[in-house]
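Self-study notes.
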Amino acid sequence: MSTHESTPPSGAPVPEVEAADIEHLTGMAIPALTLESTGGPLDLQFWTSSRSVIFFFPRPEHGGHTPSLAWQQIPNSVGSLPQAKTFSDRLQELIYLGARVCGVSSAPLADLEAFVKRHGILYPIISDPEFKLRDALKLPTFEFAGDPDAFVPEPEPERDPTAPAVIITEIGPDGRPIQIIGPTTTADDELEEESTDEPGSIAETDTLEIDIEETPVEDETGDDETATEELAPPEPVEYYHRLTFVAGAGKVEKVFFPSYPMRDAHEIAQWLQIPREITPFVADDPWV
């Protein structure tokens, strides 16, 4: 399993899945698993008794906005929506060539059902949140902490704790003095005092340098501690790496890797046109 942080260091290399990580798949038997899908419980051994295209993707994309930069740094993590729609658009062609299609994601079934309904996907998508197929087929996954769609702003520079703050006294619209906390100053950048010619009048702008100190607060146990609030980092979530293979007669026949969202359906269609033994559909197959 490869792991990616939600905020990787700038320029840090992101590990990719190597061909050696998936070369064991060709010829592997499809496990005897029945998993929930958007079309109801799906028996994988029955599904792959005839030729089937199975593609794995990390999560259903919402569309209409760009995922976070941290998520985009993960190789081949973006493109679930165009991939799913391309397979849907070419589904009849693939069925004509002897293969049906299903997708697999670790996303909750409710999210996948909404995804299928929103985008008109014409084939079932399996929900595998327990990664049963990962364990059975030794499939690659990765971890990501945080919301893949969240905007992560650049961190602000830390304030020098030794630099004083400035309180600026100004004359408000009603003629009364008001105080505003101004920008931090340094020894080389001090504000100059301005005063009026009339003795005893309030200066338009008076400056006063003060040091801001953290106020200790007493917790429920009676111990003094600094009043600071830190948010716990988000827990990492596991996702499937993008991967596509063709299975038939209950075994993996051909692995397409790397998996390209817009090219897989075309390349699989070309591969299916090569003369080879084709396992026919089962007569009572409800998906055809």
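Second protein, same conventions, sequence then structure:
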Amino acid sequence: MIANIGPSNYNYEESLTTLRYANRAKNIKNKPRVNEDPKDALLREFQQEIERLKALLLEKKKKKEKSGNDENERQLNSADGVSNGEATEKLSEKISAIESKLLSGGKNIVDHTNEQQRELEMKRQQLAEQNRREREILQKLEEKEESTLEVRETFSSLQQEVELKKRKLKKLFAKLQLVKAEIKDAQEANARERRELEELQSELMKELKLKYLVIENFIPMDEKNKLLSRVVYDDDEEDWKLMKPVKPESRVITRRPISNPKANRPICEYAKIAGTVGSGLRYKNENILDVDLIMPTRLIKEYSAPTLSPSVSAALETALKEEEEISIDASSRVLAMIPKEGNTTHRVGTAKSARPKTALKNIQLSNHSTHPQSKRPDSANIFPQSRGLIQRK
């Protein structure tokens, strides 16, 4: 069980009710019950009720025996004695009737249980009434006991009252003397402290007059005014303080700090980016309009090379191409076909020319082919000629 209570005074009543409820909840105990036949359960309840009633009768008999010696109980029981006796007799008769019904047979069990239930309800009502009367009797007894206690606390005689008041008076007189002594000690301490304060005040006045005399006669008025302007009273510490002198350089108004030393005014990062992008005069460092350059009209033209005819370009491409090596078979028939000039002999073999000479021939052939008079066949152009022959010396 967890109870939440508060320590404040306005939660006192709520805390008490919470604690009472927690105590009641803590004392709750669940009683287990066995599953049984309702008839057996009813019989068991009747037997328990009979035993309980017998126990009540025994308790009442014991109370009657004990209350015979008490006068107060006799007075209280004088009015209700007859009724209690009749009630006990009735209860005993009902108990005997219940026992006889339990022992007797031959009746319908349903009717029997219904009658027993009605009788049980009546007994419960009677017991509740009897408990109420008992509570009333107990309340009256408690009230009488309280009254007797008050009577016992009262004084048996006037002499005892006088002695008690004398003792109280002595205690009060001792307290009065103690308070007077404390007041006298406080007055003496106050007077002593007052004398010390007066002496301190006189010494301070002397020192103050001396300092005023020195200031008036030996310190210029400008220095005095500067010093007085630096004096400040601190309310927290309750003391006068002398502030530091202000340098003349610090009185000069400094320039406003700028974010960029090259800029004339503080500019944020967003304004810098917007200024570089070029979003108008708003984010510019200076109020100067940036205008693009006006280019003049062009009066000259660029040189373009003339275009060649397809035949010329094809001839140039063939002339610039490198030719493969040509191997010639220098047999006897070929040597017989070569004309002899003097005593010079030729060595037949394979050789490379430093530069192919057929390119110029091809150019000449192309030129002759383009010419209208160069359409006749030439024997020298039909058959290939040998190249790379070196004359012997």
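Instructor comment on the second fold: Residues 158-218 form the longest helix (61 residues).
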